[in-house]
Amino acid sequence: VLAMALLTLSLPLTSSQEYVPSEEWSAEGGHSVLMEQYTATWCDVCASVDVWMPDFTSANGNRVARVAVHDTFDDPLGTPITAHRAQYHSTALAAPSFWFDGSLLFGGAPDKASLHRALLSAEGQRVDDTRMVLVVRALTASQISISVELSDIATPDSTQVSLFALRASASIGPEQATNGITEHHDVAFAYAETSIGGDAKWSYPDASWDDATGAGQSVEPGGVVVLTRTLELPEGVATEELRIVAVHESSSAEGSEPSTMGAVAVSLGDQGDSDGVGLLVPLSLILVLSTLAITARSRR
Q: What is the pLDDT of residues 185-200, one digit of tens each?
């Protein structure tokens, strides 16, 4: 019996311990607050804030979806996304700047208490959250599809879904890190806007997203709207290091603050580990105990 128990517990766990990449990642919600941060690798004040950003977002979980857009001057992480999103805000950019659901947080470099208050304020001002389901699928090693399902839409007219593709962690060389920070988080590298009617609008990099005719849109029973876009990943960027943020917001004119009606995010590295190890060991113990019980009865 002891030999059988040892044999059972020594069953190879290799297959269940191996990392198996997920082909699909999903998140459901819409209640998250979009926190856009304008920052720069040359900004010393930004460095004092950026270092504790991962702790802030982790502590608040799904309450906040952070997007970091970097300056395009002398910053290797800057993209045209920064200028495009800046046109929606009525104030001039000053690093660092934070917008919660489009509302600017004033006061230079904030502390954690200020950000927590701004988050609470944004949550209190949100009315009629759009219910959102975000599904990301790996089509190939370098291409993903992003589908957003929207329901309970209070104001469908003149609204859009904005998709941010982020690098959960992006590293730069010490020679590029003017402010001394070499690792940055939630860095936007791709972005696309799609009207609620399914028409593709502004995107970057434009060649990496499907064209206007490829922006899928369908209306399901009950008024549920599903929008789908595909994104070709740049060389050297793997799916497991990505974070996708989907936002339902008003199609704001230049200089008017966007109105966020829903936001949801999913990290593509969260669901890759197999749960097989956690199940195999308890099942093995149950099998051993059952064997011992049967053997004990047979000896009576």
A: 999 999 999 998 888 8
Q: Is the per-residue pLDDT at 51 higher than 80? A: yes
Q: What is the pLDDT of residues 57-88, one digit of tens each?
A: 999 999 999 999 999 999 999 999 999 999 88
Domain residue ranges in the chain: 23-269
Question: Could you tell me if 26 and 144 are in contact, meaning their C-beta atoms sit under 8 angstroms apart?
Answer: no
> Is the full-model pTM beyond 0.85?
no
CATH assignment, 23-269: 3.40.30.10
Is there a cis peptide before residue 96, judged by omega within 30 degrees of 0? Answer: yes
Q: For residue 156, is it left (φ>0), alpha (ψ between -120 and 50) or beta?
A: alpha
